[in-house]
Design goal:
Strand content: under 5%
Helix content: over 70%
Radius of gyration: 18 Å
Number of helices: 8
Largest sheet: none
Number of domains: 1
Structural class: mainly alpha
Shape: globular
């Protein structure tokens, strides 16, 4: 949905909307699958991911033709999506027996790379890199660390759900209280 909306805000045609929606929804998982050398990229082995993305893009086109998108609702949906995709990506990485630090990276990649690609394609600074944006990738990373810490103490699905809850709650708290990571700023010296 965020891909279709980003394309709409930039005035893309319907093909552009679908392209941006597909890249946003499938980009992070695709990069993860390539990096961990998964046998087949997830949406190639199960085209239902493509169909669901196309349906969501179509519904977004129809919905926004008649109604203005509710920004607060979209922020909640985005926080839930970040948590879901990041933690499922981490769980897939765990299944490939990679080191914990790689699990964290693969989970974060799954959750944020689609949005980074979306922002680049619509000529925006990626949301996850903006110092003016509330915590985003950091929330996903903390959720993944909670999942990894709890998966040997709790049932796997409970640990996964707890990680998702933490990631979504941190993102929502960041939005509500405008919590941000410190910006890294350098002053450009001009030769005289």
């Amino acid at each position: 949905m965020s891909g279709a909306l980003a394309a709409g805000y930039k005035g893309f045609d319907w093909v552009g909307v679908v392209l941006i929606a597909l890249v946003t929804a499938l980009g992070g998982g695709t990069v993860r699958d390539v990096l961990i050398d998964r046998e087949t990229v997830f949406w190639i082995s199960d085209p239902n991911y493509v169909w669901v993305t196309l349906l969501a893009a179509g519904l977004t086109l129809v919905y926004t033709h008649y109604l203005k998108p509710p920004s607060k609702t979209l922020l909640v949906a985005d926080a839930l999506g970040l948590a879901l995709f990041s933690l499922v990506g981490a769980q897939i990485a765990v299944g490939h027996n990679v080191a914990p630090v790689i699990v964290v990276l693969m989970g974060a990649i799954t959750g944020v790379v689609g949005g980074v690609l979306r922002d680049i394609l619509v000529n925006e600074i990626p949301l996850v890199c903006r110092s003016t944006e509330a915590i985003y990738t950091f929330a996903a990373v903390i959720g993944i660390v909670v999942y990894l810490a709890c998966r040997h103490l709790l049932d796997e699905q409970l640990a996964l759900a707890l990680g998702m809850l933490v990631a979504a709650a941190l993102r929502m708290a960041g939005i509500y209280w405008n919590l941000r990571l410190p910006a890294f700023r350098l002053e450009l010296e001009v030769d005289k």
